[in-house]
Structure formats: structure tokens, C-alpha cells
Known about the structure:
The chain is α+β, with helices and mostly antiparallel strands. Helices cover 47% and strands 18% of the residues.
Amino acid sequence: MSTFWESHAGPTDPYSGSSSLLCLTGKRKRTGPDDSDPRASLYRHIAALLECGFLEETETGSRYVLGLRFVKIALTGKSDTHVINAVSAVLQRVVKDLGETAFLARYRGGRVDLIHTQVPADPSVPYIYPGLGVRPVHACSSAKAIAAFLAPELQEDLIDTLPMRFTDKTRTDPDQIARELQQVRRYGYATCDGEIDIGVTSVAVPIIVDRLGAIFSMGVVGPTSRITPAIQPRILPILTKQAVHAAAAIQHCSVVEAETTNANSLAAAKERASQQH
């Protein structure tokens, strides 16, 4: 049976050396494995973790942080249930504040899925239920909000070669789709205005996870007559704020850390979009 180490780290030499580690030990000379010295075993394991990307050394060379590869495995490997439980309270606040159905989407396995919805509790107010499952990048706001921030090669894999036209408002031309994703990256939010169902509008924002980017998104959906006039004055301020709380909940970090990540990532994305325009 393969271990977690073998299945994720791949073949590594646990006894391989590391010049950076030698600096930390006062340039300690190693003449070979010494199982009698626990420190030697520790250094060998650290060297292997650095080599496979599970650890990274800080700029000062005095400490280590979890590597990007480990972070990717940990976060992308979280079950939908785990993520939903973490973000459920955030979605409930969105529904309470806006009175519309809220949703959560995630990117995994080369596609974007809507994995959870939270509907209004007031039975006297009609609402839209968007369903669950795969979402088309060329038409759905939740998928657009994620795809716009992915690397170009991943973005291309998400877009169907022959996009389906759901309504007269659905964009199917590749150039139009690319321009819209560029706009989403510049302004930080996506919309679906009658592109899947006439009279139904949704708005979504990326949930930016530290070091991984926008692998989740969240938003609201409802009748066009209620959603469209509220996008700028009410919906976007609330979604933008709650997306930071959602990121913090998924990462189990502080809101301040999530705010910094969100601000830096959006600023960088906006700059890239401006350069491409």
C-alpha cells in the first residue's frame, strides 16, 4: 500500500542533501546517514519535503512554511461537505441581507460546479432555485467569476469548443467570451443576465484563496427586475465583503489575512486586464 508521502510527493531520495539546510546548521558536514542522531533524520526529512514542494524556506532562511504543493493538495482535496459547512453561515448572511438565493461554486477536475445553494426563508417572497452541478463558463456568472482568474491554459480547458446557446443573449463567439472574462477580471465580478433563462439574473464574485487564487465563487440569483437595479448599490458591496469572510473560513485564517490576499489578487488581476486591453 502506498503512503500519503509516496502517492503525493512522488519518488524522492530521503537522504538527499540540501545546501540551504546546511546553512541553518552552521554548515554542518554530513558524511552519510546517521540514524543514531535524531537531528540528522530530521534534516533529511526536511530536505525531502523541500524537494517535493511540501515545505518552502523563507527569504531569511531561518524558518519554513507550508509549500504551495501541500497547500494545493490540502485545499483542493477538501470535500464539498467540508467547504459547504465552512461557508454556510456566510451564505446565510447574504440571503438575510439581500433576500435572494445565494450560491457557492468551486473549480475542480477541469470544471466548475455549483455545489450549494441557500434559499430565502420567507415563504411569501418568490425566489429562483438555480440547481446544482456543472456550470457553463460562457453563460453562468459563478463559472465566469472563477474562470476569469485562472491561468490561460486552464481557462481554455473550461470553455466548450462549441458553446451552447441557451437564449438570444447567450454569448457563443470565442472573442466575445474572452472579452467578457477580461472585463470580469478587471472589475472583480461576473453577471449572467438572461443568458441561461430569460428574466433571471445572477451576480457572482470570486472567493480568492491565498496562494491558489479563485478556485471558489459565490453569488446571488433572482428575477432580473429585482437583481439588476441592486447590483451596484447593494449586491456587490455585500458579496465582496462576504467573499473575504468565506475565504477566511475555507482557509481557517483571519479575516485580515483574507482581506490582504483578496486586495492584492484583485489589484494584480486588474493590472493584467488593463495591459491586455
